[in-house]
Amino acid sequence: MIHRIHLQDVQQAKQLLEVQRAAYFVEAELIGSFAIPALHEDLQALQRCDETFYGYWVNERLVGAISYKKASELLDIHRLVVHPASFRRGIGKALVQFVEHAEEDMERVIVSTGTKNLPAKQLYTQLGFVEVGEKEVIPGLFITLFEKKRFSKAS
């Protein structure tokens, strides 16, 4: 079941932090760098962030989460994390599709991932995102930028 994560709820925030760290640890190994900021985020920093979070819960346990920000007609996905014990179960796909549906008035959706994170790149491509560039965020560490253009239902 997917529903909103309330970061001021300490238990929810702690579960999110646990899933986030486990997921980003796997990504760090894939991309060959542990310089992912969210991998080192503490509870207080997470609770202060201004992203909107939704979680995928199984038996009252958080197994995946997505966060995003909105600006004008742009939906910017900031985080998509799935606990490694729940990989390959369609959770990441379900979370992206949920947010896209919930925010269907957004004309563009953007997301990025480590260039060497092939599973994430394949997921975004499968979901209709198009690779639009690559960026070196620190020396030797590249992220791939994806975008999906949509028509606003309001038009």
TrEMBL record:
<protein>
    <recommendedName>
        <fullName>N-acetyltransferase domain-containing protein</fullName>
    </recommendedName>
</protein>
<dbReference type="InterPro" id="IPR016181">
    <property type="entry name" value="Acyl_CoA_acyltransferase"/>
</dbReference>
<feature type="domain" description="N-acetyltransferase">
    <location>
        <begin position="1"/>
        <end position="152"/>
    </location>
</feature>
<dbReference type="InterPro" id="IPR000182">
    <property type="entry name" value="GNAT_dom"/>
</dbReference>
<keyword id="KW-0012">Acyltransferase</keyword>
<dbReference type="InterPro" id="IPR050832">
    <property type="entry name" value="Bact_Acetyltransf"/>
</dbReference>
<dbReference type="GO" id="GO:0016747">
    <property type="term" value="F:acyltransferase activity, transferring groups other than amino-acyl groups"/>
</dbReference>
<dbReference type="Pfam" id="PF00583">
    <property type="entry name" value="Acetyltransf_1"/>
</dbReference>
<keyword id="KW-0808">Transferase</keyword>
